[in-house]
Amino acid sequence: MSTAISSSPEMQSPDIGGTRGHDFSRPAAASTEFISFAIDHEQYGVDIMAVREIKGWTGVTQLPNQPEYMRGVLNLRGTMVPIIDLRCRFGQGLTEPGPTHVVIVVQVGIKTVGLLADQVLDIIAVEAAQIQPVPQVSKTTRADFLSGLVTTETTMTALIDLGRLFAEPAEAETETRTLATA
């Protein structure tokens, strides 16, 4: 039995980096990774680059005259971190935190904030083309803190715009109008 040896370039050099056949003149699809987490049976995501750490629920110190969704502050290695109850912020009532709940510590501009969630689910990589706009049902709907929706094989993940999540309604409306006219 004889083996033919080809002199084509493909047969002479191995494709170590997996780049053979790749068109380098076209930019690669930009993908962003998100930490997905659950609140009740709904799935949400935040940009992984904003996440500083994820920790189990511990008690917080409550502060007077705060919005209902502001659960209190947590001393995280000498930094006072406000803890936001996302279920409450989304208008679904207060969370009764237990040992399975988590705090996702995120950086929003110069602020460090903790997000109280039921559980962390996964890290998902999303290309910009996969992100669908959030349908606007009415002008009074408070979903302006969502930057888009991503559908994976079995779930839909609502992506949170952290900057808008912490803006007061008037600030978020002004920011949305400013972005629309730019």
Number of domains: 1
Characterize the overall form: globular
The succession of helices and strands, N to C, reads HEEEEEHEEEEEHH
Q: Treating each run of at least 4 consecutive H or I residues as one helix, how many helices? A: 4
Q: What distance lies between the first and last C-alpha atoms, to the nearest angstrom?
A: 70 Å
Annotated CATH homologous superfamily: CheA-289, Domain 4
Portion in strands = 35-45%
In percent, how helical is the residue content?
Answer: 10-25%
How does CATH name the architecture? Beta Barrel
The biggest sheet amounts to: 5 strands, mixed
| Helix vs. strand class | mainly beta
CATH class designation: Mainly Beta
Rounded Rg: 22 Å
Query: How many DSSP-defined strands?
Result: 10
CATH fold-level assignment: OB fold (Dihydrolipoamide Acetyltransferase, E2P)
Strand order across the biggest sheet? Answer: 8-1-2-10-9
What is the averaged pLDDT score?
80
Low-confidence spans: 1-26, 170-182
Which helices and strands appear, and what pairs or packs with what?
Layout: H1 9-12, E1 31-39, E2 42-47, E3 51-56, E4 70-76, E5 79-85, H2 86-89, E6 102-108, E7 111-117, E8 119-127, E9 146-151, E10 156-160, H3 162-165, H4 169-181
Parallel strand pairs: 2-10, 5-7
Antiparallel strand pairs: 1-2, 1-8, 3-6, 4-5, 6-7, 9-10
